[in-house]
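Workshop exercise sheet. Pairs work together: one partner reads the sequence aloud, the other fills in the structure field after running the prediction. Swap roles for the next sheet.
Pair: D.N. / O.F.
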Amino acid sequence: QESTQAGKDVDQLLAKIEKLNIVKFVTPLLLKKSQLNALMSTIEKVRAKQSEIIALDAMEFKKQKLEAEVDKALEDSLNDGSYPKRVLQVKIVKIQEAILMRRKIATSEMVDMLLATCKKELNEGQLAVMRNLTDPNYVEGETKASKLPDDEKTKLYIREILLSPPTYDIFKQLAKHAQ
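Structure field:
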């Protein structure tokens, strides 16, 4: 019981630290209330898109009737040590690849939605701050962030900071005190 509470306490502290890290990346932007509202509006659209993707993922699993097959394979493996059939493994990999591809495409679309809002609502100085806040040693694909074009640095900031789950609530709090 005590270790369960300790685990919850640690999780709560880690969530607070994540929020603090996000705050440290958004406060230098000096966002105005109108900018925060515009970003929150786009984040709401992004969240709706995320929900659509999750629903599509669920439909994919349901359509493939995968859960029953996985349950049976798991039960057989645990009860008699049998190895999951190759056909099931191939099916699982194909579904995982389809879901991963859908999520990559959706994430790219969400980043583009927020990029459009940033370019419309933020001034060049704020966009420069975003770019400068990216870790120059972060590696995106084969390229260090310091070598990325400006738009890609901004997209990296958006993906890592603005798409982070706590950001919306942080913006709501900031908007209460913004001009």
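Discussion prompt: The radius of gyration is 21 Å. What would you look at next?
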